[in-house]
Amino acid sequence: MTTVTTRTIEYAADGLTMIGHLALPAGADRRPAVLVGPEGMGLSDVERRRADVLAELGYVALAFDLHGGRYLGDPEEMLARCMPLLADPDRMRGIGHAALDVLRAEPRTDPDRIAAVGYGTGGAIALELGRDGVDLRAIATVNGLITGRPGETARIHCPVWAGVGSEDPIMPPAQRDAFTAEMQAAGVDWRLVVYGGALHAFHHPPVDHIVRPGVGYHPQHAQRAWRDVVDLLAECLPITE
């Protein structure tokens, strides 16, 4: 592991001042980079720590913001903002591109070697960047199996890995099937891992506020999903090429 330097980054997106978390590995050379998107509640210490761990592995990592520096612990407030956002691919792409611009502008980032990893809403944004034709090396989405506009998925030119809990009521089997059918029809190199017995947001440690029904932490599968993401990055975005 390497020594990590972190800093807060402010940038504009979706009419808000976003507050992202940038983590840099030791050294001065350019490194492959990872964009990290949070669940619908917004950027928290969970995603910040994931960015730090990625930097320990040697990546430049930016955990991006969704709500202008706010964490929406009230499920109703979160849904009121996220449902319209998830229904608007252009808004999602705008948020993703703004964060991507910040990551690319970092001198330590190799702009030709970037991956996007996202959870829930953040995962949907990662997919929309791919559907918008962004040159990414890999996309990983957990709990974010959102289908896109017809024909645009063919613009994804990198492997897509997706993870979901078998008991996730927000991403039920019909949603999974629609997502994988879309990926297959577009000729995408895709993988779907279904984690048995896991609910929605199974990767996220318990929180100290009310959550929606069907949401719950599964520590074993959380570790497995993280290993799967790291393996994807090692395959598609190795530190040394």
From TrEMBL:
Keywords: Hydrolase. GO terms for molecular function: hydrolase activity. The keyword Hydrolase applies. It holds the Pfam family DLH. Residues 20-235 form the Dienelactone hydrolase domain. Gene3D superfamilies: alpha/beta hydrolase. It comes from the Bacteria. PANTHER family: DIENELACTONE HYDROLASE DOMAIN-CONTAINING PROTEIN, DIENELACTONE HYDROLASE DOMAIN-CONTAINING PROTEIN-RELATED. Belongs to the AB hydrolase superfamily. This is Dienelactone hydrolase. It comes from Streptomyces filipinensis. The lineage of its organism: Bacteria, Bacillati, Actinomycetota, Actinomycetes, Kitasatosporales.
